[in-house]
Amino acid sequence: MSTLPPAIRTVVLVDDDSALRLALTFMLELDGFAVTALESGEALLQAALPPPPVCLVLDQNLTGLTGLEALAVLRARREQLPAVLITSHPRTSTRETAAALGAVIVEKPLMGESLSAAINAALS
């Protein structure tokens, strides 16, 4: 039997809307996640990622690099962290790219526990 405490589940949240970023950070912290919030895909690519278990939550429509473009760079770097893409009305091409990169899509508006459920599933 292990006496080590359970690993802290961390979310790296990337959204350029400061109000939404703050609201999602608050919601995810209430759900028991540690949250690192970043304002852009470029900031994500420059950040030191926390140790596992960690899940990326990326807005697709970021200023600069999109969520999927930033995720593609991470995948090229061999970062295989689970990822959730949040977006409104994703096109077929967005869905296909997300699937190819191993990201689950949660559509806005984020209702109920949909985002936390997707993160928990990705971390399982």
UniProtKB/TrEMBL annotation:
InterPro entries: Bact_response_regulator, CheY-like_superfamily, Sig_transdc_resp-reg_receiver. The keyword Transmembrane does not apply. The modification 4-aspartylphosphate is found at D59. Gene3D superfamilies: 3.40.50.2300. The keyword Ligase does not apply. Residues 10-123 form the Response regulatory domain. Pfam families: Response_reg. Keywords: Phosphoprotein. This is Response regulator. It comes from Phenylobacterium ferrooxidans.
